[in-house]
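The protein record passed on for reference:
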Amino acid sequence: MRKKSDTEVFRITGARPALADDVRGRQRRYVISMSVRTLAVILAAVLWNVERHVAIVALALGLLLPYIAVVIANGGRENASSLPSAHIPPPVRPALENKAEPAAGDQPSDVPGAGSEQQPREHS
């Protein structure tokens, strides 16, 4: 015998990734950008006397990457709008129908509004 319950059912396929996985991914992106920044600053120092234009570009990259890395790391969780909704509405069961409905021409005469209009009677 099945239990009848009105509890809501949720799909786990529509759930977001775990918070720990999201934080780990953002930390990984931040470390990669800071590593590229460190390499750019070292490259700027090495190339300063050899190729000054490339050193200036590398230095500019080294100055901009921290800001970009922080913005990316603090961007927060992504919306998973492409995933299906996690909520499954409960099934709608049809109501029972009343089978004792009168036919269209079989309206009783004692029902107000049926047939001709009744005039109010005055009591004397």
Summary: The helical segments are 19-47, 52-73.
